[in-house]
Write a structure and sequence with these properties.
11 strands, N-terminal domain of TfIIb, alpha/beta, 355 residues, seven-stranded mixed β-sheet
């Protein structure tokens, strides 16, 4: 974690600024220049919540004090007392968060563990196509995007973020899963900051970002509209929200697969992996090859896991999403891309007019 990230971070629960205890620093090269970064540390809120920095990544999920117990007990002498106090004051909230997040965190960690960062494309796109797709979704150009600060809420494998950073675009890249660890190892740009966090409890400053981008993420939460609402305050007035969501399809196979996943997504993840590997993968491989799709085996498995393993997977209409934005006083709502499985909507956050 770079020191300049600290003023942007917030406690995901209280939204207060965080204080830093540095445990270990290291020198890290960014664009051939060495920077002193925080390799290990602890972030403290003003109301008892605390969060570790591990492998240079702030772990800012609400339940981080439980997920990273081993690290925290090593570096906090009063860990047991702090944890007891947090649980005593917030036990029902904490139990809800753990139940809500556990499966989603595990499924996306499993999904991106299949991905090869040096060889694979992301959703059929190489670097040039990925950047072009981002510009189309956000309705930006290679020129207009310059100077804008981007919050990528659900960055997945992080390849887009590294690409943006290498083009000089400052971006905070957040994901729920442990994919951020590998993504951070491949980052060579000082413009990219990887954090772990939950879209329903964004651990960043409000009214800060020029663009909040969330592609194929909100539909994997327990409530898509609620998740959109939780991200809205992070966007500055006049800023742009961009979300890619799945839409309904009148397709027998598509809807059959959704019926199947409603059952199989509840099975143990390792079992699901081999179930799909020996059933859906051969069908997918043959069908895609016949159609001329040149995805490799890992890329196909990522596609399959992305569809079938998440606990939540919702589909929405254009009109429904537009209504969400209008209810939140956004303007200039428009569809920027519309494909086989989903569509991207952008909208501008209205300036507050004081009377």
């Amino acid at each position: 974690m770079q020191y300049k990230l600290l003023p942007i971070l917030r406690c995901p629960v209280t939204k207060s600024k965080l204080t830093l205890q540095v445990i270990k620093e290291k020198e890290q090269p960014f664009n051939n220049t060495n920077f002193t970064v925080i390799e290990q540390g602890i972030l403290f809120s003003d109301a008892d919540w605390f969060y570790p920095i591990i492998e240079g990544i702030p772990r800012l999920c609400v339940e981080a004090f439980i997920d990273y117990k081993e690290f925290l007990t090593t570096h906090l002498q009063d860990y047991a007392e702090r944890t007891k106090k947090l649980k005593g004051n917030n036990i029902h909230f904490i139990n809800y968060i753990i139940k809500k997040n556990k499966r989603t965190k595990e499924s996306f960690t499993k999904e991106w563990s299949v991905f090869d960062y040096e060889k694979d494309k992301t959703w059929d796109a190489g670097d040039a196509e990925m950047f072009d797709r981002f510009l189309k979704e956000t309705n930006e150009t290679a020129t207009s995007i310059n100077g804008k600060i981007v919050f990528d809420a659900g960055c997945g494998n992080g390849k887009l973020n590294c690409l943006l950073g290498n083009k000089g675009i400052v971006n905070i890249a957040m994901d729920f899963s442990y994919s951020i660890v590998t993504a951070n190892r491949f980052n060579v740009s000082e413009n990219v900051h990887f954090i772990q966090g939950d879209v329903q409890f964004p651990p960043v400053a409000f009214n800060y970002f020029d663009i909040v981008h969330s592609s194929g993420v909100l539909i994997h939460t327990n409530n898509t509209e609620l998740s959109l609402s939780c991200l809205t305050p992070t966007l500055k007035a006049g800023g742009k929200m961009s979300v890619f969501l799945y839409h309904h399809r009148k397709d027998f196979i598509h809807n059959l697969f959704n019926k199947i996943r409603s059952v199989t997504s509840k099975l143990p993840l390792d079992f699901q992996y081999y179930l799909y590997l020996f059933t859906l993968f051969p069908i997918s491989f043959c069908t895609k090859r016949i159609k001329g799709n040149k995805q490799n085996a890992r890329e196909m498995m990522v596609d399959i896991l992305d569809w079938f393993t998440p606990e939540f997977r919702s589909e929405h209409s254009h009109d429904e999403v537009a209504a969400w934005f209008f209810k939140r006083d956004f303007i200039n709502v428009q569809i920027t891309t519309d494909g086989m499985f989903g569509f991207n909507t952008i909208a501008t956050k209205k300036f507050l007019i004081l009377k």
